[in-house]
Amino acid sequence: MQQTLFDKIWDAHVVHSIENGPQVIYIDKHFIHEVTTPQAFAGLDKRGIKVLRPEKTVATADHNVPTKEQHLPIKEKLSRQQVETLIQNCKNHGIELYGLGHPFQGIVHVIGPELGITQPGITIVCGDSHTSTHGALGAIAFGIGTSEVEQVLATQCILQTKPKKMRINVEGTLGKGVTSKDIILYIISKISTSGGTGYFVEYAGSAIRNLSMESRMTICNMSIEMGARGGIIAPDEITFEYLRGRKFAPKDFDAAIEQWKKLKTDEEAVFDIEYTFDAADIEPMITYGTNPSMGIKISENIPDNEDNGLSKALQYMGFEKGQSLIDKNIDYVFVGSCTNSRMEDLRLFCSLIKGKQKAENVTVWIVPGSKQIEQQAIAEGLDKILAEAGIDFREPGCSACLGMNEDKIPAGKYCISTSNRNFEGRQGQGARTLLASPLMAAAAAVTGKITDVRKLM
Fold it and tell me: Phi/psi class of residue 136: alpha, beta or left (left: φ > 0; alpha: ψ in -120 to 50)?
């Protein structure tokens, strides 16, 4: 029987199938952080249960950590309590923790791939919706709720209904200034925030195959923003070379590659639904509303229709139907999050910023995704490029992606953000978020307004 890549991995991890119901799936790696675990561990402790396989769980502190002066105690009470609780729970259950001060600390979906913990053919879960990021390496990865976190800690398995299968092909060559962030924003603008609901998405096509590993992570990361359960890309030579030499990569790497090469969709395999897009049709993208599907090419105007609660979204954002966003003044630029905080993203941003000054009206935060990225950026001199431009280079954490820590965008202010969500209040109560690529963020940082990055390249 011809199988998709998703089928091959999923079926290999089925422990038990319930007739006319869900399946019990074995989980190879469980990532945890400080926000969605306190209640899960409390549930175990209440029942006197220990974590079944602590060596399969990896913890880090990321969502609520400060990105300035991390050597000092956390000021915000709830954040401090959550991080301290994670430390104690990991100690009680023998779980490896990459907490503040550890050289491997960082955003959970950044450290997994960069350490080689994320590998093709495995199953991964985390109490965070953007766990889909790890699918870029050919893994089945998806977010789970706190009760499910407890379930995995106790049993190393999870009860799930198998999703339907979707394939999205992007064929051709990307134009100037177009990045993987633009690809995924373009796709979501075409199929909506609910277009992937109930599906697991495989991304394919020549444009996808030509992407770097870090660019692929950006695509899979935002699968959840179209409602999908997750995203996956078949592993290839780019994947293998990315993983080679990583801290937790397989010891017999060549043997692992031979197994990983089998992880691809069979030619005659059938998907429940399939889309194909032309890479040449994609331009630098930017969002104008309050969900990620409200995105346009930078050359386009805001649509004039009543779909998706547009009027309400535009009222919140202070925009009008039919308006062009070009030359709109902005207040903040944020480069970071599990979507765009890797070395490739920082290099892209700095490639446009080098030798220039940020605009006086803009506050710019550059937040690396991990301590390893922070140190690499310093080694490459990116910190100096940013400092000379008057830009704030911070320490690792989720930062201004979500209004959960100290890095919040003030009410009414506009922020060009490389993160993944532009919901009302996502970056702080009343904040107005416009999602874009690191290149578009750099253009805004230099000009102080929304700018077509291609004019600066």
Answer: alpha
Which tokens go with 394?
């911070």
Sorted by sequence, the CB contacts under 8 Å of residue 58 that are 6+ apart come out as 29, 30, 31, 32, 95, 96, 98, 111, 112, 117
In order of start, what are the domains of the chain with their CATH numbers? 5-160 (3.30.499.10), 164-236+257-281 (3.40.1060.10), 286-456 (3.30.499.10)
pLDDT in tens, 235-272: 999 999 999 999 999 999 999 999 999 999 999 999 99
Give me the sign of the Cα torsion angle 433, 438, 444, 446: positive
Retrieve residue 2's tokens. 């011809």
Q: Quote the CA–CA distance of 106 and 218 in Å, as a whole number.
A: 16
Regarding predicted confidence, which is higher, 82 or 404?
A: 82
What pLDDT, on the 0 to 100 scale, is given for residue 308? 63
CA distance 48 to 211: 47
Give the strand order in the sheet containing 230-232.
Answer: 230-232, 199-204, 164-171, 273-278
Three-state SS sequence of the chain? CCCCHHHHHHHHCEEEECCCCCEEEECCEEEECCCCCHHHHHHHHHHCCCCCCHHHEEEECCCCCCCCCCCCCCCCHHHHHHHHHHHHHHHHHCCEEECCCCCCCECHHHHHHHCCCCCCCCEEEECCHHHHHHHHHCCEEEECCHHHHHHHHHHCEEEECCCEEEEEEEECCCCCCCCHHHHHHHHHHHHCCCCCCCEEEEEECHHHHCCCHHHHHHHHHHHHHHCCCEEECCCCHHHHHHHCCCCCCCCCHHHHHHHHCCCCCCCCCCCCEEEEEEHHHCCCEEECCCCCCCEEECCCECCCCCHHHHHHHHHHHCCCCCCECCCCECCEEEECCCCCCCHHHHHHHHHHHCCCCCCCCCEEEECCCEHHHHHHHHHCCHHHHHHHCCCEECCCCCHHHCCCCCCCCCCCCEEEECCCCCCCCCCCCCCEEEECCHHHHHHHHHHCECCCHHHHC
For the full predicted model, state whether its pTM sits above 0.70: yes
- For 410-436, letters b (16+ CB in 10 Å) and e give eeebbbbbbbbbbebbbbbeebbbbbb
- Burial label for 254, CB within 10 Å (0-12, 13-18, 19+), is exposed
